[in-house]
Amino acid sequence: MRWDNLFDDLESQLEQELGAEEGDLHAEEERLRLGRLTVRDRVIAMTRPGDGASEQLRLGLRDGSAVTVAVGSVGRDWVVGELIGARRGSCVVPLSAIAVLQPTPEQLVRSVVAEAAGEPAVSLSARLGLGFVLRDLCRRRAAVDITTASGERSHGTIDRVGRDHLDLAEHDPGVPRRAASVGRIRILPFSELLLLRF
Question: Does the structure show a pLDDT above 50 at 151?
Fold first, then answer.
């Protein structure tokens, strides 16, 4: 009878150890999965529409300002959408300009259960870099308002886009880009761009 109790006790201890080991393995797998997530992965998961509408996301930018964006698309290193609030219009936000994401509780849950994006990216926009988006604005001769990391705001037309910078011809809002209306040309590195509104 004592042997039966001893074997029952040993069996119970073995089951507990196996359960603890399995729990530790699951916890380690979860830590590894979370370790592979990028800000981009989490933004995509947070803004995946649940009801067919664009999901709004509150972003804190590196200059301390905050914007709310109804996200339309997420690229390799940018977010494009519509600004919500006092400053309305279409916008581009480089991912490097985001200092903090301020998700709703539901967005937070979606972002944590997200999977890391695999390479190659499946959608075309996911493979396109910020330079491509800026070249499109340049081709369309769209007037843009640019906010830089130093807090400066400029209005003008993008004249050309290099690998890591753009040339902005500054002119008054509502005035077409003409040589006579250009006040100055500024070369802005992509790393200084916080928000482009067009």
Answer: yes
Nearest Cα neighbor of 113 from 26, 179, 33, 186 is 33
Provide the 10 A C-beta neighbour count for residue 159: 16
Convert the pLDDT of each residue in 90-135 to its tens digit: 999 999 999 999 998 888 888 777 665 544 445 677 788 999 999 9
Q: How many CA atoms lie within 13 A of 91 on its CB side?
A: 27
DSSP symbols for 51-84: SSSPPEEEEEETTS-EEEEEEEEE-SSEEEEEEE
> 3-state DSSP call for residue 146?
strand
Specify whether the CB–CB gap between 198 and 142 falls below 8 A: yes
DSSP 8-state code for residue 141: T
- Which whole-number Å values give the CA distances from 122 to 50, 59, 76, 87, 108, in the listed order? 20, 25, 11, 32, 24
Please give the model's pTM, rounded to 2 decimal places. 0.76
How far apart (Å, rounded) are the C-alpha atoms in residues 152 and 192? 10
Neighbouring residues of 81: CB distance < 8 A, sequence distance ≥ 6: 54, 69, 70, 71, 72, 73, 90, 91
